[in-house]
Amino acid sequence: MNPKVSVFIATSLDGYIARTNGDIDWLDAANATVPNGEDCGYGALMQSVDALVMGRNSYEKVRSFGFWPYGDTPVVVMSSKPIAFPDDLPNTLQQSSESPQELCKRLSGDGVGHIYVDGGNTIQRFLAAGLVHEITITVIPVILGHGIPLFGPTTSDVPLTLVGVRTYEFGFVQLKYTVRQQYPGSVRSAEAHSFHSGSLLLMSGAIQDETVHQVDPGGE
Predict the structure, then answer these.
(1) Domain 4-193 belongs to what topology?
(2) What are the boundaries of each domain within the chain?
(3) What pLDDT band is residue 182 in, cutting at 50, 70 and 90?
(4) DSSP letters along the chain, please?
């Protein structure tokens, strides 16, 4: 049985997760408006997940921050190219060239019940594979006009149910959806029917990730 898969990401009002060149300076500016002590639920999200899955570009972006924000939470970096992880990172970090389906099956066998998927192409691949259960989008009050969109082309509609809305006095709007389609082997958490404040990690997720050549339409 597949783990629950959650997406949590920030976008501009017009649906972009980064500028065309990958820059997320507009997210840095948005972070500056958030009061001290307010994490928009990020801590709650990280406490609820058993593993985090991201692409190589997201991993490289996080590394550029100069610190590792995930502690000992298991992190899987999906990449078809070898990655030399530095010794200062936790041994819970691993690389995978598996498909989303293969990865979910393996992680389930390892006892993982809840996965947080981060990064543009990685999110798109998990959606295309029918593995995503819930999507939380935090809309930042800025219009970029162009950039890297969160959602690329899909082979079919992905019906959603809005289960929660949260507004913040500093202008953010957080929308939480469950994916209505029932996927074979998936489990819907009872929590999906009630709204809990999601988490906001503005420093990651706004990156189009490297993906594996041999699986899923769209590739890298």
Answers:
(1) Dihydrofolate Reductase, subunit A (3.40.430)
(2) 4-193
(3) low
(4) -PPEEEEEEEEETTSEEE-TTS--HHHHHHHTTSPTT--TTHHHHHHH-SEEEEEHHHHHHHHTTTS-TTTTS-EEEE-SS-----TTS-TTEEEE-S-HHHHHHHHHHTT--EEEEESHHHHHHHHHTT---EEEEEEES---SSSEESS---SS---EEEEEEEE-TTS-EEEEEEE-SPPTT----GGGGS-------TTSS-SPPP--TTSSTT--
Model confidence, pTM: 0.81
Phi, psi of 193 (to 5 degrees): -95, 0
Q: What is the pLDDT of residues 96-138, one digit of tens each?
A: 999 999 999 999 999 999 999 999 999 999 999 999 999 999 9
DSSP of 150-189: SS---SS---EEEEEEEE-TTS-EEEEEEE-SPPTT----
The pLDDT, as a whole number, for residue 204 is 42
Token digits of residue 149: 């969109």
Q: What Å distances lie between residue 213 and 35, 100, 217, CA to CA?
A: 42, 13, 9
